[in-house]
Sequence to fold (285 residues):
Amino acid sequence: MGTVDLHTHTTASDGLFAPRELVQLAAERGIRVLAVTDHDAVAGIPEAQRAAEEYGILLVPGIELSTAVERGELHLLGYFIDPEHPDLARHLHRLHTARRERAVRLIEQLRSLGFPVSLEELEAIAQGGTITRAHAARLLLVKGYVSSIDEAFDRYLGRNRPAYVPHSYPSPRQAVEIVRAAGGVPVLAHPLSVDDLEGALAELIPAGLAGLEAWYGEYSPDQQRDLAALAERYGLIATGGSDYHGPGFRAGRELGAVDVPPAVVEALVACARRDGDRPATLPLQ
Fold:
């Protein structure tokens, strides 16, 4: 069990645990450094920070931004962001409005496929967090229409599937700029989901990309080592995390399941201080 986990989600987006519950579980599992990186949301950070101070955990304020790409999936992690930065707040407000409209269309699509679901049920699953396709997948699972989260995505919710609804996200380059404007360190999340990884790196590194998620929960040891080597070749920080959403969400994604080298945290801290004079204080002595 690793002591560093830099990729987790709470009920502020599509995680199963409230921020305090997540931090408590991290403490129970011996995690000393935890990043909360909710999808396009920062509402869970204050509660997680307060709990982390109680449990003696270093809480890294983060986010996972969705981006618009033609193929594959490209998400961007931002570490040591200022959750209250006005540019970030404006982006998240626009995205929240667009996600609400998308949720309505998603329910309409599911109903057209013969699933008698409602927006109220989807909102109940989301528990006030940012509504994502993962919430829709859980709704289908809870109601017995699918046998797993993966089946929900593979059959209905994934790109080009019958219930998929296009979204309005920033470009990958714009996402890097949003993270940097908020004082954060931009890192490419689960890079094997990217359709043209080396092409994406060639575009995003000049824009300010600083890291690549190599030590990822679903990746094999060989894949992790190859990605760490790729990060080194491009001069990027090789980061890592479980991408924890809750127990039994997907194989390999249990909290603390990945052995992330503690030196990664120091590298991120150094990058944050160099680029934006943030964070001000860190208990890393």
Notes: Confidence is low (pLDDT under 50) at residues 280-285. Residues 92-157 form a domain with the DNA polymerase; domain 1 fold (CATH 1.10.150). Residues 86-112 form the longest helix (27 residues). Strands lie at 4-5, 33-36, 58-66, 75-79, 185-188, 211-216, 237-241.
